[in-house]
């Protein structure tokens, strides 16, 4: 059994630069939905749309933090503090959205009651990470979700 830890750094999420036009299209879309909410006298929904648009504009231009990751013989450690015990790993898989991207996404399912943990790994670490994780859980084929595809289309 391989005991050499695997270390890497990756952004916390895939970032797409957005031009001013992206923000204006987002605002116009929100205005259309806001108009429908007001015409329908759904003022709570109107407030929700305003708050949601402010969050979208803020998050869209936020730069991702660079996070350190480690896989040792017992855990996956994220940012030096969040530990996931490998003995609890049920299955894992990779999502490769674009062959030109520097990173691919690693999905980790630790049990049926927790959502899948998704992290970015450098493309060149796919094989060593897969070999290490196969000792603890089964590899499954993962396809991009509808949300993954939509995020890629709108470059969020």
Q: Key terms for this structure?
A:
2 domains; four-stranded antiparallel beta sheet; PH-domain like; 156 residues; 4 helices; alpha+beta
Q: List how many beta strands DSSP finds.
A: 8
CATH superfamily of the largest domain: Pleckstrin-homology domain (PH domain)/Phosphotyrosine-binding domain (PTB)
Radius of gyration over alpha carbons?
A: 19 Å
Structural class by secondary-structure content: alpha+beta
Strand order of the largest sheet: 1-2-3-4
Helix count from the secondary structure assignment: 4
CATH fold call of the largest domain? PH-domain like
Approximately how much beta-strand content do the residues carry? 25-35%
CATH architecture assignment name of the largest domain = Roll
**Biggest beta sheet summary:** 4 strands, antiparallel
- Given the C-alpha coordinates, what overall shape results? elongated
Give the rounded overall mean pLDDT: 89
Low-confidence stretches: none
| Separation, N- and C-terminal Cα atoms | 40 Å
Helix content: 25-40%
The secondary-structure element order is EHHEEEEEEHEH
């Amino acid at each position: 059994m391989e005991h050499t830890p695997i270390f890497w750094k990756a952004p916390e999420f895939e970032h797409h630069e957005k031009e001013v036009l992206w923000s204006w299209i987002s605002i116009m879309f929100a205005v259309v939905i806001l108009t429908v909410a007001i015409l329908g006298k759904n003022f709570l929904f109107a407030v929700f749309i305003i708050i949601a648009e402010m969050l979208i504009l803020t998050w869209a231009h936020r730069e991702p933090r660079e996070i350190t990751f480690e896989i040792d013989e017992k855990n996956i450690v994220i940012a030096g503090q969040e530990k996931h015990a490998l003995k609890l790993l049920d299955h894992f898989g990779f999502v490769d959205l674009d062959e030109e991207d520097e990173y691919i996404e690693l999905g980790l399912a630790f049990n049926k009651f927790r959502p899948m943990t998704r992290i970015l790994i450098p493309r060149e670490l796919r094989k060593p990470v897969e070999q290490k994780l196969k000792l603890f859980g089964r590899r499954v084929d993962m396809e991009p979700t509808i949300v993954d595809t939509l995020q890629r289309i709108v470059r969020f």
